[in-house]
Amino acid sequence: MFEPRGPKSLSDIVTGAKTWFPFFIIPPKRLNRMWVDGQGDRPVVLRPGFQSRLRMFTVFFNYSGPLVVDILPQDTTMTATYYVQSVLSQVKSAINEQRPKVSTSRTLLLHDNAGPHKARATTQPLRELGIQVLPHPAYSPNLAPGDF
After folding, report:
1. How many CB atoms lie within 10 A of CB 63?
2. What is the DSSP string of 69-84?
3. Which Pfam families would you find in this protein's record (predicted)?
């Protein structure tokens, strides 16, 4: 497929990855300022928003860099419907903008084997767009990063 003068080139590959990013919300110190007399104890200030929160980032990139960065809205689950309507529609627009002559017809998509990626609601629109999905390599514990 990638032979010289073959039908596809490495520039046709679009890779997608998802990851969870934790973040903290810490109120600014100026909101905790108060006057205290010399004999009194300092009041305990609780930080109401100091829990760790997670947000899912989905990033698609190709040979020239990032195409799409999608942040899953809070209290939302990644489903096939969200993946197609929100994420893949952005990817399609980015590819069409970057390569207007070729569009999505030569695109090879590499994403993992997550449920929303393998659902019929996802694979059918990809076929209609002419996007070929590359098989994701099987997990191999001897190649995965481990604890050193």
Report:
1. 11
2. EEEPPTT----HHHII
3. Transposase_1
How open is the CA angle 116-118-119, to the nearest 5 degrees? Answer: 65
Q: Render pLDDT for 20-77 as a digit per residue (tens, 0 to 9).
A: 888 766 666 676 676 777 776 776 665 555 556 788 999 999 988 999 999 999 888 8
Q: d(Cα 26, Cα 103) in Å, to the nearest integer?
A: 44
Q: Backbone phi, then psi, for 62, in 5-degree steps?
A: -135, -160
pLDDT tens digits along 119-139: 899 989 888 888 888 887 776
For residue 109, the cross-strand partners are 14, 133
Environment class of 122 (CB within 10 Å of its CB; exposed 0-12, middle 13-18, buried 19+): buried
Q: Which residue has the tokens 């108060």?
A: 34
DSSP letter string, 94-113: HHHHH-TTTTTTT-EEE---
